[in-house]
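User: Quick sanity check before I run a bigger batch. Here is a single chain. Can you write out its predicted 3D structure?
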Amino acid sequence: MTLMNDSEQLRTEFLRVIQNKFPEVFKKPFTLKSGEIRYSVYQTGATKRWMQVDCHPKHVAVAMDHRVGDISTNDLVATDIPYGLQENRTGIILKKNDDAVNISFFLDYPYDFTQEKFVQFLKQHYESYLKRIRS
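Assistant: Done. Predicted structure follows.
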């Protein structure tokens, strides 16, 4: 049995929420050159990913793709995750090209993935992702 470090456990918890709330998606592991495992999450039958989830020693990094213009900074702020990415705390940003969201969940700055405002954001983001892959 392989022991998981804390960030691996955090990633597992995050992916469990995704799979519980979105049963039509699947996660696909990919081994990076470093030997680390990256999980990409796809809609069944899709070739474009919805998100990728990486582990780092002190945090989990999530990159989520959506259709350009569908997600605003206000949508991110409504999650109560601090806006902006820093090296030592949980944060969220909208990428400059307006087609992706990046989130860092730090072990020392916990966030409840199951709270309704975050689940609602995930649903909104997922709908945008579906529009992206169907266009």
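Residues 6-128 form a domain with the Aspartate Aminotransferase, domain 1 fold (CATH 3.90.1150).

User: Great, the batch can go ahead then.
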